[in-house]
Structures are given as structure tokens and as C-alpha cells.
Amino acid sequence: MPGTFDRSRGRALTREVSPLYAEAVSSYFNTRTPDYEAARGSQEAYFAALRAHGTEVVTLPALEGFPDCSFTEDTAVILDDRAVIPNLGHPSRDGEQDSIADFLADDFEIARMPRGATLDGGDVVFYDDRFLVGLSTRTNREGADFLAEHAKDSGVGVQLFDVPASTLHLTTVCSSPRPGTMVAAEGHLTEADLSFAEEVIWIPEEEGYAANTIAYGDRVIMADGYKRARELFLDAGFSVTSVEMEEFREVDASLTCLSVFIG
Ligand code: CIR
């Protein structure tokens, strides 16, 4: 339907964890050195969860010199037959998007951001008729405006949110698992922020990491180990698959970061 975000998840573009994973950017938890082998194991479990829900998982090799390269969500925003390719907001990550753009160029028209505009795909949450876009330490106004121009062509609106510097991305604190529904972490967003949604599942702040979900109809994939959030999803009529995410959380990454859906 024009003007409605397509939630189909036929193919996911992913990238192997970098052998330099121990050097991944980590601002908020940073309690120990991230472990490459453990992250690889979690990534395999994540791929298996996507495949179990019918997604074809396309995995590019790790990108030399980019410790965060497995977080492909940040490198492209897909809008119908167009891929918006941002300038990533962290200097150590800017450049990851080039090979993603090359890969996508076979199937998508590529729209590259002008210099000075920055955006991480992790600041874009897809809701039915709009993109929620976070203005954050990674995404600036020019980046959001560039995305908004392209979204307008597809009949999709953009609603901006201020993301405080203590939170990496907008997807760190919310997601939209099914039409009409938002999941959001308490203490980060307000009812007024999400007044457009028919239903909001509020996750208690101490389990806020679990507000980042990937869903297929009424089946939700969530991070493992968040008991209250799991109960809330079950109460809301979802069946639940969980994936161990601790090694990714260590570098501020959530479930959605590990893929960009491309069909
Ligand atoms: C970063 O700081 O850029 C990475 N360590 C984590 C990126 C997570 N990406 C995402 O939430 N979309």
C-alpha cells in the first residue's frame, strides 16, 4: 500500500563480526573487552532466528579495518526501490556504507547523503505511515532532512525525536513489532511522544534494552534474559523467540543493528 511501510522481511543483509571486535565503539557499558568468539556465536544464533522466521540471510565478509562492521542497520535505509546511504555519525564507522552501497546498487537506486549530513540507520524506527527519526550524537538535522525528502517521495512521513547523548540511537529504546503497536522503554519516551500508536507496550526502565525487537506478525524476536519484558510480550499476544545478546549489548548494539532488511 503506498504510504505504508512495508514490513516484509524476505532478505536480511548482514556482515560477519570483525576480528577487531574488541575495538568496537563502546560508550555506555564498557565494563570489559568485547569478545569476538562469543559475538560470532550470538550472531549465528541471531541468523538462525531470522531464518526460522523465513528470512534469507545474506552475509558479507567482515570489512577490514572496521570493528563495528557487523551493525549493518546503520549503513542503509531502504525505501521501496531506493536505498538511502548515509554518512555514518561516528568517525571510526564512516566508510562502512561504501561496500554496502556497492552491494545494493544491483537492486536499488542509490541515494547518497551530501557531506556534512550524518545519520545512522539505528536512528530510524519504521512505523506504519512514518519513520520515527532520532536526532542524536550520530544523526544530525541535515541527515534527517535528507532522509525525509526521500521518504516523502514514497508517501512516508518523518517524525523527529531528540535522543539524549546518554542513549546511542532511537532504536535503543523503542521499536514497532506490528502495525499499530510500539514497544518503548519507560524513562526514555513519553505517552505524548507515541500518541500516534494504537498500542504501546511499556518496558520497565531496568529492562529497557528489550524494547528493541524484530517481529514477524505476532511472533517477536527479543534479547534473552528480560523476564518482565517477555511476560509483557506474551500478554500482548506475541509468541517469543529470544537470542543471547550480551556480547552485542557490551558495545551498545541491539537486535535490529545486526541486519538491514532489503526485501
Ligand atoms: C556503535 O557505537 O556504532 C556500535 N558499537 C554499535 C552500533 C549499534 N547499532 C545500532 O544500534 N543500529
**How far apart are the termini?**
15 Å
Strand content: 25-35%
Q: Bound small molecules, which ones?
A: citrulline
CATH class: Alpha Beta
Q: How many β-strand runs?
A: 15
Structural class call reads: alpha/beta
Which outline best applies?
A: globular
Domain count: 1
Question: What's the helical proportion of residues?
Answer: 10-25%
CATH homologous superfamily (4th level) name: L-arginine/glycine Amidinotransferase, Chain A
Please count the helical segments.
5
The overall pLDDT, averaged over residues, is 95
Radius of gyration: 17 Å
* CATH-assigned fold name: L-arginine/glycine Amidinotransferase, Chain A
Sheet with the most strands?
3 strands, mixed
Instruction: Report the CATH architecture.
Output: 5-stranded Propeller
| Major β-sheet strand ordering | 2-1-15
* Spans where pLDDT lies below 50 across 5 or more residues: none
